[in-house]
Write a structure and sequence with these properties.
This protein is of the alpha+beta class and 135 residues long. It is built from 5 helices and 4 strands. It has one domain. A 4-stranded mixed β-sheet has the order 1-2-3-4, sandwiched between helices. α3 crosses α4 and α4 crosses α5. The longest helix has 19 residues.
Length: 135
């Protein structure tokens, strides 16, 4: 069963400081805080058209301080609306087939989020990201 104590034990395994990575995760953050996960590092990823000109930026946000750690330009993308979905973002940066059978399935979301985060780490130096969140 997926219980709060199971999750806490999983995240605290070997006394490591687990990082919780979310996609457009404001609601997720609130739920995690209510469940008592306030000591874990939480990062939020989102892809947003900041200037309403169809130029999208992939943002990595440190939830504890709401600081934008990275603001990575994805470029001009033709679409309605100012947010890119998880799949739209992943499609804009990766040509690999991740065998996604159902969008919004938990396994698919993890695969796509991991791909996007790995892309950010490669493009922007993983050590730089860590230096912004582990102080």
């Amino acid at each position: 069963n997926l219980t709060t104590s199971f999750l806490k034990n999983y995240l605290d395994f070997n006394n490591q400081n687990a990082i919780i990575l979310l996609w457009n995760g404001n609601s997720d953050k609130n739920i995690l805080l209510r469940l008592g996960f306030s000591t874990n590092i939480m990062l939020n990823m989102t892809a947003y058209d900041t200037d309403n000109n169809r130029v999208f930026y992939l943002k990595l946000i440190y939830f504890q301080s709401n600081e934008i750690i990275l603001n990575h330009k994805l470029g001009y993308i033709i679409k309605n609306g100012r947010f890119l979905s998880l799949k739209e973002t992943q499609d804009s940066i990766c040509n690999q087939n991740h065998d996604i059978t159902c969008i919004h399935d938990a396994t698919s979301d993890v695969k796509l989020s991991k791909c996007i985060f790995n892309y950010l780490c490669i493009k922007n130096n993983y050590q730089f990201i860590l230096s912004k969140i582990i102080k």
